[in-house]
Each structure stands twice: as C-alpha cells, then as structure tokens.
Sequence to fold (303 residues):
Amino acid sequence: MPFLRFTLRQLETFLTVAETHSFTDAGERLGLTPSAVSQLVQELESVLGFRLFDRSTRRVSLSVTGKEFLNSAGAVLKRARQAETIASAINARATGVVRIAAPMVIAGVMLPTIIKAYKTLQPEVAVRIIDCPVERLVDIVIDGDADMSVGPNSFCSDDILSTVLFESPWVLWCTPDHALAQFAEVNWEDLRRFPLVAAGRDHEQNVANMGSALPINERITPVDVVDNISTALGIASSGLAVTLSPAYVELLAKPFGLVMRRIVAPDVVRQVCLYQSSKFFNSPAAEGFAEHLIGWIGQNIGR
Fold:
C-alpha cells in the first residue's frame, strides 16, 4: 500500500463513526451529511483494502479488521493533533529555542534580565546565550550559529539587518583618587598624560580612530591591550592605568570601586545594535524575542 494514501479527515471520520455507531450521529459531530460520512469511510476502506464496519439498517459496528485498525488510527490522529498544537504554539511564538550571541558585558549583565522578563510572557521559549567576541558578532549570524546577536556597531554586508538599540557615550574609568577623577568631564587630550589599557582589539582600534585626525605625537596609544574588559577594569582599580569603555559597562565596573567620567572634545558615542540575518528565515520564537528585546531596551535604556 502506498504510504499515506489516506487522509486525516478519513481517519477522523472512521474514529467518529466507531464511537457513535452511526453515520448520522457522526455527521452531526463532524458537520457533514450522512452521505458524506459514508463516502469518506468507503474511500478509506478502498485505500486500506478491507472493510471497517458491518452495516445494518439500525446500527453500524466495527468489523474484525476495523477493530484491529482502530488503535493505530487513533494513535495517528492523536499525533497529528499534537503536531497541530505545536505548530499553533510556534506560530504564536510560544515555544522554541532562540540563540542570541553577545560580548561579555551584554551577555552577563543585560541579557539575563531581558530573558527573565520574557520568560514570564513565553515560559516555553528557551533563550540560549552564546558568549561571543565583538569581532564575531556579525559572522556568527551569517554562519547560522546564532539567530541574532547584540553588541557594538560593526560593518555589515547585505546579509545582515542591523537595528540600533541604543547609544552609549565613551567614558573613562579610574580610581576615586586618580588625578582625572577630580574632573566632571575629561578631554581626550588629557588622556595622553596617563597610562591607558584597552580591552580587546576592538577598543584599541576605536581609541586609535578617535585620534586619527591628530598628529602622530598627540595620538592616544594604550600601554597594553588585554582580551577582556574585566581585566582592564581590574588593572584600572589597582591604579596602574585608566581604561575606556562605552558607559553601558557601568554595572560591571562599579564593583571594582571605579568612578566614571564622560570624555568630551569631542563627544563620542558607541551604538549598540541587534544583528539578524537578511537571508535566513528566523523562527517565530526568535522573531518574538527580538521584538521583546527591542521593546525592553526602548523602555529601560532608550536611545
């Protein structure tokens, strides 16, 4: 017998007739005429190659072969209804797995709070955080290893949709007794007089770009570049150097006992963006979480 030559509608009709022992009663339950019910049963019998019911003028009862087929038919229909329920939940963004990549500060400080709020709305959606260096935020989405990523603005090809979530000014972190801590704001020129440690090549390049218009002897050059912002903050807390970051690092920096000072002349801001693929179809669960993420940041951080 060819696979799946019968339909779910035929199975549903068969099971309803088996339960009601009547084409008329089955038709009323299914919203069909008795003749339509009879036609569906006959079509199923033709496909199966055996009789499902013994018919009389008063009653319809299962045949021997119909009884043997009953449990299997019921199991198929039950699974089909479960699949329908799951499909409805997926379309309603109520189930699924979402993979979101982010660098350390956003992954460890910001995303858990956002995910916790989302779990109260969609408890069956699992959101997985992928730790990711800034340099990989775009590629990890292009490669399909994450549904989306969040982090500082990066160059994007046509394969990526970039949505600005918020802007964060570049700030200085230093100890409360540091010479620069006495100022409410610090000029970029002032930084040249003090040792500076940068966190990651991304920060190093940004510091270099900010002073690219200055003569070489006036540009700000870090004395060291470390991989993680937490390491840079630790060095700053010892007083060995100062460090820079966008202001959203504040929640991570405060436990180090550091103070934050806005850097001006010029003011420089860092955009934090949501990256999604323009080529791959995002699941309804991923689309739902992305909308929640954008809304949460708009309400709690803003531009």
About this structure: The CA atoms of residues 47 and 251 lie 67 Å apart. The radius of gyration is 32 Å. Residues 8-91 form a domain with the Arc Repressor Mutant, subunit A fold (CATH 1.10.10.10). The chain is about 45% helix and 25% strand.
